[in-house]
Amino acid sequence: MKVLCKYNLGKDLRPYESKPLDKGEFGRFGASEATEYGELEIGKEYLVMGIVIFETYQAYLIDGNGFISTCPCQLFEIIDDHISVNWKFRAINKSEEFYPFVQTIMGYPELCSNKNAYEDLIVEKDEEAERIYFRRKIELEKELAEQQ
Amino acid sequence: MYEMDMRSYDPATARWVAQDPVIHFEYSPYSAFDNNPVYFADPSGADSGVRGLGRGRRADNIQTYNFAMSADDVADAEGRSVKTTNGFTAALAFQEAMVPTGYSSNTTDCCGNKKWKDMTPSERLAAAKNMSAGALQGLAYSMPTGGYNAAMRGGDAWNPSKADIAGAEAAPGQFAMLIGGEYAFAKLFQGLVRLYRATFVARTSGLVAKGLGSTGRITANNLIEQMAMKAVVKDPTIGRVVMTGMKDSRWLGWRKLQYSVTTQNGTKAVIHYVGKFENGVLKYVDDFKFK
What we know:
The complex is a heterodimer.
Chain A: E1 2-5, E2 45-47, E3 50-54, E4 58-64, E5 67-72, E6 76-80, E7 88-91, E8 102-107, H1 109-113, H2 117-123, H3 127-147
Antiparallel strand pairs in A: 1-2, 1-6, 3-4, 3-8, 4-5, 7-8
Chain B: E1 2-3, E2 8-10, E3 15-16, E4 40-41, E5 49-50, H1 62-77, H2 86-98, H3 121-129, H4 133-142, H5 147-152, H6 162-170, H7 181-188, H8 195-199, E6 208-209, H9 223-234, E7 240-243, E8 255-262, E9 268-278, E10 281-290
Parallel strand pairs in B: 6-10
Antiparallel strand pairs in B: 1-2, 2-3, 4-5, 7-8, 8-9, 9-10
Helix pairs in contact in B: 1-2, 1-4, 2-4, 4-7
């Protein structure tokens, strides 16, 4: 799955909010109007490595210049909607630390098999988690190349 | 084991057994007397100071002196009107504070015209608007214990009441303002002169840096990180939420936010901090750190 970045600012998400918000108020995307998605470059293609369903929005797991993050789907346009045959799916149990902030995760196997994957990858920036991410990214790029 | 007001000291290990309620960049939160037991004393366990200064007087030290001196470069880089003598003025404030008989409320304004303790609030505001970060930090540190509380209730920061002093000593974290860097210092001065509200943190006037602790690296490794930190402490709403419901007792229930910057040559800076929200509005911030 590939997406094209259309926006990289919190104010671009305002039209997708479910209610009017003040400029500095954080909405359902966990962003204010001043929020900057510094890792995103408008017009650049990103390979989607996973989809994270948060409590109030959905996000793509991507990396910009090596910086791995989850960004709201509304910031992108889908240019290749093929999903990897190796992707897994996991529903977060209500007893887990990230519930209900994170509801479900879909993506490469380790993203779903490791219960701490979101925290390791996005919050803690754990090196081993990042190594796995990029190894899987190389595999996915090969898979996409073979399909074409 | 010696029981002090704020924490206990273990002479066998020459360490405090609890973390320092005041953040210092240079030391372990358990180190005592700023690693200089000959010069500094710490009768409360809250912070090291020069022996001989009485209760209600906050002593400064070499470290804060150096920090203020170096902070002038930061202020210059920001492009604000900065008088180059201000860092030196701040340094003089520290030097005065280091001498038991002197005190930095005797420090003059940037031009040497008038002492701070003799200024009216409007004169302090006018003088402070021209001061660098270093000088501001100097003044922040020169205030006596309770000065911040006095200022926040509209009183004289250099003449805090007993209640102001008691309040400050009961909440030493309020003085641990280094965590938010310049932003925190700006907030420290908010009640005194409200100088940064217009010029530095105008968009964050409702925010307060809590100074409850630090859990990561807070020293920038490069200019990009330094600039990113300056940007996010100026306006913490530029970040985004990456986690909710924090379990740390210091920020129980707060949210973790992230601010990231990538330059055109690929250099990245990522800053994490914690925020407390009320009805979707960011009200408190803390624990800014580089990832």
